[in-house]
């Protein structure tokens, strides 16, 4: 059986002008996708976000929201009321992430059993 050897990877495979490290893919930000999903239906207050985000601390939620605001995917609006009120909402840029998120969720649902089986097989082989 003859095996075809693929061509070596070129040293310029990744464009040096591509800002990949700075693009907010959000995949590495643990809570970002869940926050996006919470804001999909419209603006929410901080306390509203904490309800479905079980396990997140106030500090981590604050840091996540601030980071996502910095990336331009959500906006923070302060209302001059007493007591003060703040709401978070997706920006048009943030809304563009919903379609790709749906695709990844669909892929995950369709392939979850196979993924879990592969992990289990790998762990058994490692023992």
TrEMBL record:
Q: What superkingdom heads the lineage? A: Bacteria
* Domain HTH hxlR-type: residue ranges: 18-116
User: Mind telling me which InterPro entries this protein's record contains?
Assistant: HTH_HxlR (IPR002577), WH-like_DNA-bd_sf (IPR036388), WH_DNA-bd_sf (IPR036390)
What is the recorded name of this protein? Helix-turn-helix transcriptional regulator
One of the Pfam families matching this protein, by short name: HxlR
Keyword Transcription regulation listed:
yes
Name the source organism: Kitasatospora purpeofusca
What keywords are assigned to this protein? DNA-binding, Transcription, Transcription regulation
């Amino acid at each position: 059986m003859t095996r075809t050897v693929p061509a070596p990877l070129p040293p310029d495979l990744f464009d040096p002008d591509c800002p990949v490290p700075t693009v907010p893919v959000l995949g590495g930000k643990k809570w970002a996708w869940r926050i996006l999903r919470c804001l999909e239906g419209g603006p929410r207050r901080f306390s509203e976000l904490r309800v479905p985000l079980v396990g997140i601390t106030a500090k981590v939620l604050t840091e996540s929201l601030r980071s996502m605001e910095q990336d331009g995917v959500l906006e923070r609006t302060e209302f001059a009321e007493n007591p003060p009120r703040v709401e978070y909402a997706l920006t048009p840029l943030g809304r563009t992430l919903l379609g790709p998120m749906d695709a990844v969720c669909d892929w995950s649902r369709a392939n979850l059993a196979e993924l879990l089986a592969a992990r289990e097989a790998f762990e058994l082989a490692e023992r």
